Amino acid sequence: MIAEGVIGWDDFMAVDLRVGRVVSAVPFPQARRPAYILQVDFGPEIGLRKSSAQITAHYAPEALIDRLVVGVVNFPAKQIGPVMSECLITGFHDADGHVRLCVPDGDVAPGTRLL
Fold first, then answer.
1. What is the three-state SS of 25-78?
2. Which DSSP category does 62 fall into?
3. Fewest CB atoms within 10 Å of the CB: 37, 39, 59, 113?
């Protein structure tokens, strides 16, 4: 018997989490909450993906360039105002409710899948 809330390995593997490198980060003034529009390179297999990220409390746009991030690349695209978000950049809420990015602990090639 599987406990409530427990998922199987196949459920976890259905979420395609990949390392990407931020190549562009610009303010997204039309967003309801402060956000940036990120262009993230997920390597040759997946390529560039756009995302709206509410990470303005801890990160300046210029500090995000060349940074590695972890993103979900197999969610359907989502319209966020005038922007079509093509991936979900992952992070954790801190004690103040602001997002801190989930990042690799070292240099990992863009496109590498989380296992």
1. EEECCCCCCCCEEEEEECHHHHCEEEEEECCCCCCCHHHHCCCEEEEECCCCCE
2. H
3. 113
| Side chain identity, residue 53 | A
Residue owning tokens 């690799």: 104
Q: For every one of its 115 residues, what pLDDT tens digit does the chain have, with 9 covering 90 and above? A: 556 789 999 999 999 999 999 999 999 999 999 999 999 999 999 999 999 999 999 999 999 999 999 999 999 999 999 999 999 999 999 999 999 999 999 999 999 999 8
Distance of CA 19 to the CA centre of its chain: 9
Round to whole Å and give the CA distance between 38 and 26: 7
Domains plus CATH for the chain?
Answer: 16-101 (2.40.50.140)
Q: How many CB atoms lie within 10 A of CB 99?
A: 19
